[in-house]
Design brief:
By secondary structure, the protein is mostly beta strands. The chain contains one helix and eleven strands; from the N terminus they run βββαββββββββ. Strand 8 and strand 9 form a beta hairpin. Bound molecules: zinc ion (2 copies).
Length: 135
């Protein structure tokens, strides 16, 4: 059963997710600020095998991201919309919440790297707000 569907701005990349998210999070780290072009990333962490994708994506791999391990940031080859982030060997993918067809499905429970957020960002009161990554 498909729980979630979404895609990029131009429609060339479409995906479906057949699982409930492991985590729903916000990331305020400086790398995510750069990649999303805005203040923070919003994403759903899901089992890798639950995600079906059609359409061509390009990948930027950062050798040692905020976690110290290579991060693959994948985006639509045509319009550039960020689609997902994954690390080798984790079995999980982080799907960009802004690409969901139904935005009301996204309910973040944790904010990461709060210490790197711009001073004007107001942290949600209903998320666990961590200074960096999970400890
Ligand atoms: Zn696109
Ligand atoms: Zn981040």
């Amino acid at each position: 059963m498909t729980h979630y569907t979404g895609g990029c701005l131009c429609g060339a990349v479409r995906y479906s997710i057949d699982a409930e998210p492991i985590r729903q999070l916000l990331c305020n780290c400086v790398d995510c600020q750069k990649q999303t072009g805005t203040a923070f990333l919003s994403g759903l962490q899901v089992p890798s095998e639950a995600v079906s994708i059609i359409g061509a994506m390009s990948t930027f791999t950062m050798p040692g991201g905020q976690s110290g391990e290579p991060m693959h940031r994948r985006f639509c080859s045509k319009c550039g919309s960020p689609i997902l982030i994954e690390k080798d060997g984790t079995g999980r993918r982080l799907i960009m919440a802004g690409t969901l067809d139904d935005k009301s499905q996204f309910k973040p429970t944790v904010s990461l790297f709060c210490e790197q957020a711009p001073s004007w960002v107001v942290m949600p009161t209903d998320t666990e707000n961590l200074p960096r990554y999970y400890t």
